[in-house]
Description:
It is a single chain. By secondary structure, this protein is α/β, with parallel strands linked by helices. It has 19 helices and 24 strands. The strands form five sheets. The chain has a six-stranded mixed β-sheet with strand order 8-9-10-11-13-12, with helices on both faces. Strands 2-6-22-23-24 form a five-stranded mixed β-sheet, with helices on one face. Strands 17-18-19-20-21 form a five-stranded parallel β-sheet. Strand 17, helix 9 (about 335-345) and strand 18 (about 350-355) form a beta-alpha-beta unit. Helix 6 (about 220-235) crosses helix 7. The longest helix is centred in the middle third of the chain and has 17 residues, at about 220-235. The termini are far apart.
Amino acid sequence: MTHTTTSQAPTARPVEIADRLVVVDRVHPFTDGASPQPAGLDTVAIRDGRVIAAGSRDELAIHVGDDTVIDEHPGATLVPGLVDGHTHIVFGLELTRGVQLTDLTLDEAQDRIAAAAAEAAPGTWLFGWGTDPNIFTESGFTGKLFDEAAAGHPVFLRLRDAHSAVINSAGIEAIGLTGRETFPDESAVGVDEQGQPTGYLLELSAMDLALGQVPAESHEELADRLAVVLNGMAASGITGTHVMDFHAGSREVLEILESRGDLPIRLRFSPMVLPGATDETLEQTAALQGLHGRRWRVEGVKFMIDGTVDNGSAWLREPDCYGQGRRSIWTDTEAYRGALRFFAERGIATATHAIGDQGVAFVLDAIESLGEVAQRSAHRIEHIETIPDSTVPRFAELSVAASMQPIHGTRHTRADRTDNWSVRLGEERASHGWRCRDIRESGAVLALGSDWPVTPYDPRVMMAESILRYPVARPELAPVQPKQALTVQQALEGYTSHAARAIGVDDEGAVRPGARAAFTVFAADPLTMSAQELATIDVVATYVDGEPVSR
């Protein structure tokens, strides 16, 4: 008996009709293994906020329907949406309260405070931010330098590292500062030789002594200010940022903004776990995971193992020139290990601020000690300002991402080592600063960011300075550690594919089917430009969830 079988052709999958096509001259997808610009790639098709296809305009014509919107950007280049790997969006509003003092001399800063005092109501607090620690070189950290300028007003001035502040004599009196205050971590109040407070407040707990006694801005006022920041970021090409805190009031401010419309960029918040956190606090922080709005979410946690070099609280193997920097801000470092394991066991991603060489090494050791548990989530280290040769390969070996801000080096240090940061560390450790190129070429993930508001957020300038190793606006300056300069492509990857890898996601940082439709569209091809040209390249459009948020 003969059996005859027939086969049917498989049912053709229906072609998806795009909500929008974005047509440019070229697309750099930054997908793993792809060349920067595969031949003929000039169009992206989007549906429901995701990429459904990328190819030539002719190839993607099948995705065009009657209601498909076609955006054309002649001569432009499209890249995955730029993501700033480290900011403080809502907390930053508090950090930028008052008069900006960035890069000012002592005389200039005093003049700014005097001008603010002349306009302020009697007895009100004056605020300033971005204060250069180098202005205290001769006097030591003290807010009393601003007594005369403040004309009787209490003054609170944040230093540019955001980890310390000074208050003047009126401020010391207003909050009843004695110099005998104690804290659950390594925060401290500065005192003089007689034990009297100088007005120097080191780390968050000490600064809260003052901030807890001054009127806070309303959530509505903060929402208004946040809208300005986010719109500015979108206009500069940023489509998202990793926010390294979930500061008190963040949810309320975000909900006010989203009641007015969609946020112009996506925000990923990682709540801080402060030194001395109790088991109850860890549980509460874990419970925040997954909280979200339309374009913001809580994901991961942020630790700080040390402070900063400039204020003597970075954790170093050997003390700095003033004998400081020999301790973690976690008084009980084993408690940090326990907290790290708590979140790793629950599959919650971690990020740890570590600036000094000992701090970085300790965090890498702690992650290594997690064993297989470490594989349940992504782990990263923030800042990494000075490390020896032996530490460089450990990032790739342990699959720990490096999240760095080389703009701190270009803006806050000098090639001749005369700045406060370099003087404190000495020649050898200063020469090991911001080793972006070494870490990247070791095979590790290298995400880039601004640490806004510590330094400006414009990603074009940030990328340019990671290549130049000197400030774009100061070409007369010698580069700081020029061997650590990145290439243009490495800098772009730090804001795209490597930013996504740093948080362990595969649907961001690339232009491919299934990925989020977040794009930055430049007026020209950034990969063909010099660093100086990259710093000023026009952003033609920014897309988030497939919608233009800035043109």
